[in-house]
């Protein structure tokens, strides 16, 4: 297949995924328009206002971002598909350098140095770091000699994964850093031991329990479990006593150390997010305002919603960041349970299609990258929707293709259409 046969190339593109992308971006723009609607600047005024006047409204700026995303899609599909594999490490190194520059050059915005300002345009390198990290990790996992049981290979993969989020955390942008943890799902698909996922999940549960349950009770609970295992199975006592005691000591250390970490490592706004997650009704007019108003907005939509542009929570700005992080509130309030269900089903269809596309790749690199894309999108979707209904902490990550913002739209577009570019040429790939 070559670019000299556009008709054949066009047939190789996964148009189902493209359709899902168009539907989500289109519905996202409708919600951005609703959330930032002003009677002084309706859509009918598009040809009556100057460019500078229109630039004051998010819905118009999002139109511009969508237009540039279309140009970006053409570039992604036209570029030689081998470049994604060949340049993976180069792009990763360039992004790490850009994150370093951002730490020192970026102007603080809401306490975070994570935005580069290029004239009137602001870009967030952390958004694009997900793409380059996914490429580099996929390239490394596609190596012929990669062995998941080899600690050296695991450390290299961990280094590739951890460097960008550590730089992002250093720029005081913890929400975006959490997204990189989703790549573990892709690594698990490619052979990483499930024990790592279980240990991380167990650690998170223990830390959460340490915040909710008196520490002496928790230590006593784990001590009783350890003693009970020894009583039930004497062989564990004989053969695994040092290991078992070591695990118990680590757990106790985590329980006793959670207060120090909570009070001395986490920043005030991060502590507030955890407090709101644990007890959102404790301070509904202060710390819990965002989540409280978000749940009111979604709940007030009922079955079919209040109707387009009829959302009172949205219209009167009760929900902060209603066109970005809390855009799902607009869906729930104006289109109700039915509209929210349609959006969720579209996301599920997109995730299923990405996994389908990943599984049919001829190259290990293509399959790895497809699962990285699915994992990143899955994390964004579940956490963003979860935080709007109080099931996840408010960490400030956008809803893919829905939230207002050029950086997020571009980054998700790059993630998705670079995969479609690889998929379009999958029949030419050699099995590695």
TrEMBL record:
Pfam families: FTSW_RODA_SPOVE. InterPro entries: Cell_cycle_FtsW-rel_CS, FtsW/RodA. The chain crosses the membrane at residues 12-39, 59-79, 86-106, 155-188, 195-211, 217-233, 240-262, 335-356, 368-395, 401-422. It is a multi-pass membrane protein. Its main location: membrane. It is found in: Membrane. Keywords: Cell shape, Membrane, Transmembrane, Transmembrane helix. NCBIfam families: RodA_shape (NF037961). This is Cell wall polymerase. It comes from Hymenobacter saemangeumensis. The gene is rodA.
